[in-house]
Amino acid sequence: APPAGCSAQARPCFAVEGPGSDLVCFTVSGSGGAARDPGGSGSPEPRCFVPAPGRCYSLCVPAAPSVPAARLHRRLQQALRQGPFGSCRVLGLLRYSAPGAQAAPEKGFLIQDPQGSPETERALEELLRGQGELPLGVYEAGERGELWQCLWALRGAGGRELLRRARVVAAEEPPLHPAVAGLRHAAVFHSLEAARSVVEQCTSLIPEATAVLDLVDKCPKHSKKGDFPVIVIEGLDATGKTTVTQSVKDSLNALLLRSPPACVSPWRKTFDDEPTLIRRAFYALGNYIVASEIAKASTESPVVVDRYWHSTAAYAIATEISGKVQNLPPTHHEVYQWPEDLLKPDLVLLLTVSPEERIRRLQGRGLEKTEEETELEANSLFRQKVEESYKRMENPGCQEVDASPSREEVLMTVLHLIKKHCGSL
Ligand SMILES: Nc1ncnc2c1ncn2[C@@H]1O[C@H](COP(=O)(O)OP(=O)(O)O)[C@@H](O)[C@H]1O
Ligand SMILES: Nc1ccn([C@H]2C[C@H](O)[C@@H](COP(=O)(O)OP(=O)(O)O)O2)c(=O)n1
């Protein structure tokens, strides 16, 4: 863990995220103002971020939840996966205010080049030169082994100007993951209006956004549920949602709906390729469209829904909060609360199976894996965070169902729970 002792510094900190790694924070002290000597403190050296004999760089964009910033971050992320950066390790970087400071948060990347090739630095400069004002952070060791960050502004025709040279010192891990504060604006939308305004900002960039908005605007607002029960089935991929929802539909003569609804599926791929802000706003709008379908259907028959708001929120939280499960927002946090303007189901069941059984089922199904499914498999931490987020959802919460037994047994359990909660059908 990063050492204690720096938290009193009201200076911007960096949190470095690696896939599956803990949050690591370090502070860049102001020029000339070396607040403490990392060499003398016995603490882990921030220098460990610079691979010897290699080089290390950072770049950041504003983390404000705006469509242009989100798309710029995405473009940089894609560029850093290619060509000259192939041999580099690229970690996510969150720059956030230290306690008491008011700096606007930034999101970016730490690029570790084990070979320290001049080609990498040139390619980074090239990449940033086309992106307006973004400076490049270059890290270098001082004579006593201490670490410095040089911040370069890139000028036209190959020039660059040193904006700042500052010490890098170790900082304390913050009590809350720094991405938690921005979740409600950047990924987990709690009103139709919040999600709608993000998609609206995209209409000139993504032609499909207009079509989505048209559909949303055709739906009656504040849909009310009918008298028949509405049951949502949630869970990770391959936990048996399709199987269960189909059987419940047959057993109860229910109508089966899914979120995102069929009417937006032609645009799903487009939005899946967009950054979190836009992608999650799209799924949020899908829920409001489904809500109006649920309202109508539940006046005529029971309704069973394959995924709904809990999926949208749980996946968004798990992708935004890096590292371990303990980094998730604490229980009862506002991100786990149901949006006030979204139709509530009567019962939400969360299907869970062991990771081994889930992989067996995924393989058994033999379908092509989506990028996210591959990530789920590769990253069990991510899977744990999705599941834990589901379990923390409130008002309504998710009731867990062990979906490991046979299809028949799982269906019996599910029908029993529906009967218990929703009365005779
Ligand atoms: N109770 C069960 N026991 C064994 N296999 C199951 C069970 N439920 C579903 N499966 C199989 O597991 C795979 C994933 O199930 P599916 O219903 O498609 O999950 P999801 O909709 O959650 O992705 C399918 O091949 C399905 O036939
Ligand atoms: N209501 C929903 C449904 C899915 N999502 C997101 C969450 C994940 O990123 C994917 C998972 O979708 P899913 O596994 O159902 O995809 P398939 O229908 O199996 O192709 O979609 C969502 O945000 N909100």
UniProtKB/TrEMBL annotation:
It catalyses: CMP + ATP = CDP + ADP; dCMP + ATP = dCDP + ADP. The keyword Repressor does not apply. Residues 233-410 form the Thymidylate kinase-like domain. InterPro entries: P-loop_NTPase, Thymidylate_kin-like_dom, UMP-CMP_kinase_2. This is UMP-CMP kinase 2, mitochondrial. One of its GO terms (molecular function) is nucleoside monophosphate kinase activity. It comes from Chelydra serpentina. Keywords: ATP-binding, Coiled coil, Kinase, Mitochondrion, Nucleotide-binding, Pyrimidine biosynthesis, Signal, Transferase, Transit peptide. Gene3D superfamilies: P-loop containing nucleotide triphosphate hydrolases (3.40.50.300). Its EC number is 2.7.4.14. It is found in: Mitochondrion. The keyword Coiled coil applies. One of its GO terms (biological process) is dTTP biosynthetic process. It is an enzyme of class 2 (transferase).
